[in-house]
């Protein structure tokens, strides 16, 4: 039967529209990108090949180094701070009754459904130096010296943007973890209780190991997501002060679309693709997903 | 007794944390009813004079309805194409007898590794030379292409789990492959399609980088980009207007969320269990 349905024509009709679109708009653009990265190009017209000059210029520029470091900071903050926080919230949520869970779910999902522009602008108000939420809170509890101009201070700017970025997905990640937690059969906990394990011990010894599928999934999406951070930077600081809050993607955007140097922009993009591939390979190597069966 | 106190403390902590997720939104709502001056000396209290003019004044320079219409068109177009073409490809890979099905599946998975930001530059130049810049298809087609991978991979898993007898029965009853697909198979995977619809909707409605780069004309901007430009235009002095624009922009999403929060939650967490 299947054979009867699978004529050449029907396969073409089913498979080709998607495959063609995917090839033309996702895979093919990588080719002109690599080509342009070896050219002097202003977006409309090429001034010929310049060899590795774009790469040399990008790699030796301070702004690229800074943007790489900033991207690394965001990725590290998402894995070392935001992820364990979501996990802890999910574990706490597991011990609670229906009402609290419902409430937390409804609230926690909220930031994730709002548009990035709204979130970024909200955080501009929070970081506002004169009447913003953060400095007002510090003032109210008598820690006025802690207040500062979060988004124009070179030392704090990237951390401030990263917090805004990560905050948006903490609730959602908590829910992802919670979903994973709920799929663990109750019998394991009963056994642990009989063996005299308390709630902390059973969380460390049972829940977290059995949740590794979900943990890996969230790890992968948050690393790849934070590598591509762009909108928050554009709305909150436009990369400023100077180039101090640029991320790799912002650097790419700035070079191509703000200073009309598509060659250098493409060189950044090619370096970024290589970075993405390396990270994906490393993740696949070290956090390979063997499915757990209960 | 001690256990109970622990539980209470955790409960309070969680509720407090939950509140921090919606407090900024409440604050924006609050700001949107304050005049430019009042924001500075009464940032958190309820407005002393309710300043409804903010909404009126915002609408003068913030073309909300234009952006809203554009967002609807972009989202609907992308959604339709992703679901139709994505499900068909997934079906072909999962259930048709095609020599290259395995290769095509790996090929389409590449899309998960290539973030859209990477190819912003060539996409910009391609849409320009194809004369697609500042047209609806000019944004819909790239967004559709980038939405395919996730959709195909998820639906592939669903189609695999269906019994073979479905097509056999359809065939015996005289259906051709298209009838069997659209009349029998698709209705069966409706729940998975609904999940995909929610995911694609969320992604496209809130999409930023691609729309920001590819759409340069005011009258074709979607909400996210229109809002960002409105903020750039008025600067950070009049927070009453900013608040009003934010509330207006978020309202449609919030309404959708309130209507289908359970579906949305299910869709957003589905990926974690399935993948």
TrEMBL record, chain A:
Transmembrane spans: 12-31, 72-94, 106-126, 157-178, 214-233, 262-283
Organism for this UniProt entry: Cohnella zeiphila
CDD domains to which the protein is assigned, alphabetical: TM_PBP2
Annotated GO biological process: transmembrane transport
Recorded topology in the membrane: Multi-pass membrane protein
One GO cellular component, as annotated: plasma membrane
Keyword Membrane: yes
Keywords, alphabetical: Cell membrane, Membrane, Transmembrane, Transmembrane helix, Transport
Family the entry assigns: Belongs to the binding-protein-dependent transport system permease family.
Protein name: Sugar ABC transporter permease
Domain annotation ABC transmembrane type-1: ranges: 68-283
Compartments in which it is found: Cell membrane
Domain of life: Bacteria
From TrEMBL, chain B:
Keywords: Cell membrane, Membrane, Transmembrane, Transmembrane helix, Transport
Localization, UniProt: Cell membrane
Pfam families documented for this protein: BPD_transp_1
Domain ABC transmembrane type-1: 68-260
Keyword hit for Transit peptide: no
Membrane topology recorded in Swiss-Prot or TrEMBL: Multi-pass membrane protein
GO BP annotations listed: transmembrane transport
Membrane spanning stretches: 12-29, 72-93, 105-127, 139-159, 180-202, 239-259
GO cellular component: plasma membrane
InterPro entries: MetI-like, MetI-like_sf
Family: Belongs to the binding-protein-dependent transport system permease family.
Name under which the protein is recorded: Carbohydrate ABC transporter permease
């Amino acid at each position: 039967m299947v054979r009867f349905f699978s004529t050449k024509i029907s396969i073409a009709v089913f498979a080709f529209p998607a495959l063609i679109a995917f090839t033309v708009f996702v895979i093919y653009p990588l080719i002109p990108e690599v080509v342009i990265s070896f050219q002097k190009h202003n977006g409309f017209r090429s001034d010929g090949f310049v060899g590795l000059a774009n790469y040399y210029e990008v790699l030796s520029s301070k702004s690229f180094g800074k943007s790489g470091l900033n991207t690394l900071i965001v990725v590290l903050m998402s894995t070392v701070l935001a992820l364990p926080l979501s996990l802890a919230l999910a574990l706490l949520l597991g011990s609670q009754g229906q009402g609290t869970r419902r409430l937390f779910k409804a609230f926690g999902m909220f930031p994730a459904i709002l548009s990035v522009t709204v979130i970024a602008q909200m955080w501009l108000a929070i970081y506002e130096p004169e009447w913003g939420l953060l400095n007002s809170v510090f003032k109210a509890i008598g820690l006025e010296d802690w207040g500062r101009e979060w988004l124009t201070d070179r030392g704090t700017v990237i951390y401030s943007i990263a917090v805004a970025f990560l905050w948006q997905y903490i609730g959602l990640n908590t829910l992802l973890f919670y979903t994973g937690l709920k799929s663990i059969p109750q019998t394991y906990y009963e056994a642990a209780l009989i063996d005299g394990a308390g709630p902390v011990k059973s969380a460390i010894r049972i829940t977290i190991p059995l949740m590794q599928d979900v943990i890996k999934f969230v790890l992968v999406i948050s690393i790849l997501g934070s590598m591509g951070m762009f909108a928050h930077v554009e709305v909150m600081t436009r990369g400023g002060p100077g180039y101090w809050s640029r991320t790799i993607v912002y650097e790419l955007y700035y070079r191509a679309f703000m200073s009309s140097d598509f060659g250098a922009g493409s060189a950044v993009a090619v370096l970024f693709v290589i970075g993405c591939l390396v990270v994906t390979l490393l993740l696949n190597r070290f956090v390979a997903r063997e499915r757990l069966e209960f | 007794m001690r256990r109970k106190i622990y539980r209470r403390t955790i409960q309070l902590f969680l509720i407090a944390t939950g509140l921090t997720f919606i407090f900024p939104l409440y604050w924006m709502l609050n700001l949107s009813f304050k005049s430019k001056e009042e924001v500075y000396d009464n940032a958190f209290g309820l407005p002393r004079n309710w300043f409804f003019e903010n909404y009126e004044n915002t609408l003068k320079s913030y073309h909300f309805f234009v952006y809203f219409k554009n967002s609807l068109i972009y989202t609907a177009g992308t959604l339709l194409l992703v679901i139709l073409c994505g499900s068909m490809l997934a079906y072909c890979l999962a259930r048709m007898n095609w020599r290259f099905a395995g290769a095509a599946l790996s090929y389409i998975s590449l899309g998960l590794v290539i973030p859209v930001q990477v190819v912003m530059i060539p996409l910009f130049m391609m849409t320009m030379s194809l004369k697609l810049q500042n047209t609806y298809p000019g944004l819909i087609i790239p967004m559709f292409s980038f939405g395919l991978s996730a959709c195909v991979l998820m639906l592939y898993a669903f189609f695999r789990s269906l019994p073979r007898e479905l097509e056999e029965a359809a065939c015996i009853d005289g259906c051709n492959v298209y009838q069997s697909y659209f009349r029998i198979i698709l209705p069966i995977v409706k729940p998975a399609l609904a999940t995909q619809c929610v995911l694609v909707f969320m992604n496209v409605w809130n999409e930023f980088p691609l729309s920001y780069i590819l759409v340069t004309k005011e009258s074709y901007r979607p909400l996210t980009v229109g809002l960002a430009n409105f903020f750039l235009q008025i600067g950070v002095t009049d927070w009453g207007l900013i608040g009003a624009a934010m509330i207006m922009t978020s309202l449609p999403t919030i309404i959708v969320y309130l209507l289908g929060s359970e579906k949305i939650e299910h869709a957003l967490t589905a990926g974690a269990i399935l993948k």
